[in-house]
Predict the structure.
Amino acid sequence: TKQPVRVAVTGAAGQIGYSLLFRIASGDMLGKDQPVILQLLEITPALKALQGVVMELRDCAFPLLADIVTSDDPMVAFKDADYALLVGAMPRKAGMERGDLLSANGGIFKPQGEALNAVASRDVKVLVVGNPANTNALIAQQNAPDLDPKQFTAMVRLDHNRAISQLAEQTGQPVSAIKNITIWGNHSSTQYPDLSEATVGGQPALDLVEREWYEGTYIPTVAKRGAAIIEARGASSAASAASAAIDHMRDWALGTPEGEWVSMGIPSDGSYGVPEGLIYGFPVRCSGGKYEIVQGLDVSEFSRGKMDATAQELIEERDEVRKLGLV
Ligand code: NAX
């Protein structure tokens, strides 16, 4: 049997945590043969609620759950962590400017980056879920100089999964028939859900749907799905966000299926003209615990415009956190 691996989760007493932790502990993320130790971080006032979640985790008697650690100190929660899912963040409140939001999150992701740098496994795989996810990942990464920048990623997988399901619905095909969608850029309304290379049952997706539907309905529906969930549910996406985080980490750790790709927010190496260093959604293939950007795809003029617009937003966020001295 395998040795347990350490999985740190921040914001563990929150909505997403309530769905995510049970899926990790049941083996959905790292496989049904991989024991895990959960290392849960919360702010001090939420530790009591976290204890309740821990009681429920224990009550599931998951065979793969080797141990649970809880703390309000990132130096404890990230100690020797092999995986870190950074979910806890400062939400945007009414009237908050982007600068205020980035500064509040800098107060969380700078010390967390420093703690990962100091105590996590040298091979730690970091996924930032907490919004603004791409720029929070950049802040953590820039404060962890001893780790490889590629170890820091941001979640666009929920957008990717939404894009699959919307296309499946429109074409009347099962989600399993859909391959090679890409979410380019920021996890925000400027994201570009790209069907240029997507196939449905082996046929090009763009041969099956109207261009007008694609540009006028599909792209905005995917990009604004988060707001639609809030409107309907009275709370933001939680179980679907947790499921996407599981998918992201599983594919990174265990590999993507042959001939397919997924979307991950990763540091740009300059591919496809995306400014180097931005944490940007790309099409990637994973194997052996590493990801690689899918190369050689044609970029249409329409795609170029969309890809540049979402890059521009990330540049502005980066400039803002630079001004604040966070990166
Ligand atoms: P909740 O407010 O339910 O939970 C967040 C938890 O984080 C709270 O329990 C809070 O006490 C904790 N927390 C705050 N600061 C912390 C810190 N410094 N260290 C440790 N824990 C801390 O939010 P939830 O619905 O779980 O969402 C969490 C984050 O995910 C939000 O930022 C949200 O915007 C973001 N999302 C990102 C998505 C993505 O696709 N990238 C989609 C879903 C979600 O909206």
Q: What stands out?
A: The chain has a mean pLDDT of 97. The two ends are 42 Å apart (CA to CA).
